[in-house]
Design a protein that fits this description.
Blueprint: E1 6-12, H1 23-39, E2 45-50, H2 55-61, E3 67-71, E4 74-75, E5 86-88, E6 102-104, H3 105-111, E7 121-125, E8 133-135, E9 139-141, H4 143-149, E10 154-158, H5 164-183, H6 189-204, H7 208-211, E11 214-218
Parallel strand pairs: 1-2, 1-3, 3-7, 7-10
Antiparallel strand pairs: 4-5, 5-6, 8-9, 10-11
Helix pairs in contact: 1-5, 3-4, 5-6
Length: about 220
């Protein structure tokens, strides 16, 4: 039986608010795509890059995907409310209220309810994606919370700014390890895979900046 599509966004065209290039994101996504096609027979992988990486395309195509992986800039304005947290996407030719070059927490809360109910894992491969406001009984109110509100039970997010190269290395290994753990019928395959690749990265890099920024939230499988 073919797997549901995996869905990836990387290397959006730079906006005024996030102009720094992230060359590692394109390499990261291409490596993951090749890994999934190699490890999972019948795997379908959809990728949005550069001018195609808009909020409109994401909203239309992400629902129903097994994985949603966003490799881009994460933006948190600590001087404002947590609802202004966002992920940078490509600004469309015609800017609208709904699509202006960013996926915001407000957008997730207002428009994405239940959209990702069939998605197993969202990966926020960007800086500062677990930052937000602390809510009693809820934890951190930020982008991962929004994706869980949209229906996805598991999110991988970052605690601080991340290295482009080490992040690409971590993410490229993650999906191969998930496939391997599932073949072993590991009951917590996704969490097992995440822990394993992070330990491997720690063995190569002593500084926590490189191996420790990402955490796994939610359902371990």
């Amino acid at each position: 039986m073919p797997y549901r599509p995996a869905f990836f966004v990387s290397s959006p065209t730079a906006t005024q608010a996030s102009s720094r290039s992230l060359p590692g994101t394109a390499r990261e996504v291409k490596r993951i795509r090749d890994t999934l096609r190699r490890e999972e027979a019948g795997a379908k992988v959809a990728v949005l890059m550069r001018e195609n990486a808009t909020r409109t395309e994401l909203f239309a195509k992400a629902p129903g995907s097994r994985y949603v992986h966003l490799a881009t800039h994460g933006l948190t304005d600590t001087s404002r409310r947590a609802e202004y947290s966002s992920l940078a996407l490509t600004q469309p030719r015609v800017v609208t209220r709904e699509d202006f070059g960013f996926l915001t927490l407000v957008d997730l809360l207002d428009n994405w309810w239940g959209k990702l109910a069939n998605t197993e894992l969202v990966v926020l491969s960007a800086c500062d994606t677990q930052r937000g406001r602390i809510e009693s009984g809820e934890g951190v109110f930020g982008m991962p919370w929004g994706f869980m509100y949209a229906g996805c039970p598991s999110v991988i997010a970052s605690l601080w700014q991340v290295s482009d190269d080490s992040t690409a290395e971590l993410m490229a290994g993650l999906y191969a390890e998930i496939a391997a753990a599932e073949k072993r019928q590991d009951a917590v395959a996704k969490l097992t895979a995440f822990v394993k690749v992070r330990r491997a990265l720690r063995a190569k890099h002593r500084q926590p900046y490189y191996w420790a920024p990402f955490i796994y939230l939610g359902d371990p499988n």
